[in-house]
Amino acid sequence: MKSQDVRKQFLDFFESKGHTIVPSAPIVLKDDPTLMFNNSGMAQFKEFFLGNGTPKSPRIADTQKCLRVSGKHNDLEEVGIDTYHHTMFEMLGNWSFGDYFKKEAINWAWELLTEVYKIPKENLYVSVFEGSKEDNVPFDQEAWDIWKTLIDEDRIILGNKKDNFWEMGDQGPCGPCSEIHVDLRSEEEKALVSGKSLVNNDHPQVVEIWNNVFMEFNRKADGSLEKLPAQHVDTGMGFERLCMALQGKTSNYDTDVFMPLIREIETITGAKYTTNDVTGISEEQNKMNIAIRVVADHVRAVAFAIADGQLPSNTGAGYVIRRILRRAIRYGFTFLGTKEPFIFKLVETLSEQMGDSFPEIRTQKALCSNVIREEENSFLKTLDQGLVLLDAVISNNNTDTVDGKKAFELYDTYGFPIDLTALILSERGLKLDEEGFQEQLQLQKERSRAASKVTAGDWNVIVEDDIQEFVGYDRLSQQVKITKYRRVESAKDGEIFQLVFNATPFYGESGGQTGDKGYLEAQNGDIVYIIDTKKENNQTIHLAKSLPENLTGTFNAVVDANQRAKTSSNHSATHLLHQALRKILGTHIEQKGSMVRNASLRFDFSHFAKVSDEELVEVENFVNARIRESLPLIEKRAIPKEQALEEGAIALFGEKYGDLVRTIKFGDSVELCGGTHVANTSDIWHFKIISEGAVAAGIRRIEAITSEAAKEYFESQAVSLAEIKEALKNAQDPVKSILALQDENAQLKKQLEALLKDKAKNMKADLAKELQEINGVQFLAKQVDLNPEGAKDLAYELGGSYNNLFVVFATAHEGKPMLTCYISKEIVAEKNLNAGQVVRELGKYIQGGGGGQPFFATAGGKNVDGIAEALDKAVDFVK
């Protein structure tokens, strides 16, 4: 059965059972501070389990793109090594929100697996929760009794809390679960060892394929459990493992989910992959297989993350994506012999394979390819640089073991993979101090955990209120009641209190717009300042450093009007900027991210080239023309998404929209948007672009200001111009005066360079007298009163007159030490000398390093005082 049919049959089956089929949410989570990525099927439904929202249907089914590489669910290092772990995977799921429970969930799971998919019953095992005295939760007798009607009791396994009690996190909804496992081994293997003994023991062919979670408890901060007001069902079936079972394979990678990618990798690299049914393969072939699996898996995760709006970067979710891609590049570099970018070419195959089910990978194909190619180029250069640095570490090493701290520095500072370091050391007959490396890595992890650790208390409910009303589009103050609060402590912010109101005028950070600030005023005049506002699980949460004295009172919640006005001005300007870019550069422009603050705005967009200065002026003029037209805001709230799109509204890729949306219209600009905006474009006052640059391949970024910030910018420019004119003796035409100074400076620079060349020529005769012949080599090591360029000229002057020359010149121009080494080509090969190695070795005396060609190289440093010792050591190379 083809994978597309497996997916379709699952969704068709649950649609026939009254479930509403919903699309996968983006793999990247933008408005959930507790998660970077969707790591399970239930992530997009958290608000319903928490009671903060109402689903469109009490029964839902879907296939969800998931990513697990960090935190509690960290499978990255297993991926590719075994045959069933993945970074990105699909989770087929059916959900009941207070509707059906265990009986229906278990019976339908069994019906689908055995009657629709026709998996032999004798290949299946199930597990139920054995109970927990610690939590005072009994054995799941109900699930056991249901399973007894479907399967022999000797195939029902009791599972402990680790395997059969599912929790969203340290706090929140949870409950016992019932897993279904499949035994894919041969009949001969089954006869030797019972599959029952292999369940949950990491056997590659006895694997869990479906987990039915029965959500009925809430885990509190103190670890205790309380009953949820309703019982829910949350199920997840691993799509890749299910395909393995239905296609008669013993490896996920041997299914048609991965084989098209694997065949393309073989074509590109010339490597050959052996499937899991081939035995007796060599160690070299096994490493090649692992590398191919790593690349095939990782390109899926990276491409889908980029398609959903997450670019590789050095922080947060972007760093996770960069780390996944770099792991794939490194495996290709080491085991597939790929020294040039190749992973980007796989996006075409991925698009053809999955574009029907996930159209975003097709529409964003060019962006994914371009970004991945640039990342490959960049990291391959890093690997080359790391190899040079590792050579320096090895040459300075005096034992057979390389210090773990040095290896960690290569890993942490330069991104050089530790296993590649170990491999190279092994090839050189050296060992790695792995214990020292792990010690440094652990220290870094502890620092990172300490910096990001957040401890949250339970919510203290004051008033039961299921629906929180947002009134901030219409007013900036509101009489409110505190419905619940909790205390949160972190290393970064210290003690913070999170407050939820029954209604709020505060906008919570989302959609690229920062949260409102303001205050809460009690009836007696006491004030609590709201320092930030966030959105979490469909709730607006207000952050404060303290609590009001009377938590049950009525308060006046007031938004900082000045900051809101500035933020709204910048947000409306992003819409006009988006319109301008599409008008001037082309309709291929798509928004790829934004940051709207009170001080400035940032707008990322897809475009294939740098935006020229002329085009930027056009963009500015277009936006400012719309501002001068005084276009009124035309807002539509809670209209059907299909209607909004038919009316020309632009939706953003990677955003999660509900069935009802809000549209923002200024003239011809119409977008789906939940943020705050000005009532009229004239309120923006003026729009000024501050910078334009690249973020990644095919992604540009414009930073701009409006309103008071623009006014302050022009005032600052006027002050700077006055200061420039004063410095130019109040010249009538300062631009003309500056150009004249630049011309004069260029002429003086040419004269200086000519004088230095003459000086070098004049020094040549004197220095020739200082040459020493050592072992047939004309040697000289000396500090000279020249700039680095003059030292180079002097070295080449001497080199043109003498054979067998080895010179090292040191300079200290403007307090910066520099070593210059020249070796005659005649003796580079004869004496096995290399100028690059010379400057790398001598460079450590000036606290620096460098490189170059075998006959000429330079090294810069920080320590001028080390020049003398470096010159003294130079003679060792010719002795």
Automatic annotation (TrEMBL):
Its EC number is 6.1.1.7. Keywords: Aminoacyl-tRNA synthetase, ATP-binding, Coiled coil, Cytoplasm, Ligase, Metal-binding, Nucleotide-binding, Protein biosynthesis, RNA-binding, tRNA-binding, Zinc. It is an enzyme of class 6 (ligase). One of its GO terms (cellular component) is cytoplasm. CDD domains: AlaRS_core (cd00673). It catalyses: tRNA(Ala) + L-alanine + ATP = L-alanyl-tRNA(Ala) + AMP + diphosphate. SMART domains: tRNA_SAD (SM00863). Residues 1-716 form the Alanyl-transfer RNA synthetases family profile domain. InterPro entries: aa-tRNA-synth_II/BPL/LPL, Ala-tRNA-lgiase_IIc, Ala-tRNA-ligase_IIc_anticod-bd, Ala-tRNA-synth_IIc_core, Ala-tRNA-synth_IIc_N, Ala-tRNA_ligase, Ala_tRNA_ligase_euk/bac, DHHA1_dom. Pfam families: DHHA1, tRNA-synt_2c, tRNA_SAD. It comes from the Bacteria. Zn(2+) binds at H571, H575, C673, H677. GO terms for molecular function: alanine-tRNA ligase activity; aminoacyl-tRNA deacylase activity; ATP binding; tRNA binding; zinc ion binding. Residues 738-777 form a coiled coil. It is found in: Cytoplasm. Binds 1 zinc ion per subunit. Its cofactor is Zn(2+). Belongs to the class-II aminoacyl-tRNA synthetase family. Catalyzes the attachment of alanine to tRNA(Ala) in a two-step reaction: alanine is first activated by ATP to form Ala-AMP and then transferred to the acceptor end of tRNA(Ala). Also edits incorrectly charged Ser-tRNA(Ala) and Gly-tRNA(Ala) via its editing domain. Consists of three domains; the N-terminal catalytic domain, the editing domain and the C-terminal C-Ala domain. The editing domain removes incorrectly charged amino acids, while the C-Ala domain, along with tRNA(Ala), serves as a bridge to cooperatively bring together the editing and aminoacylation centers thus stimulating deacylation of misacylated tRNAs. This is Alanine--tRNA ligase. It comes from Flavobacterium anhuiense. The gene is alaS.
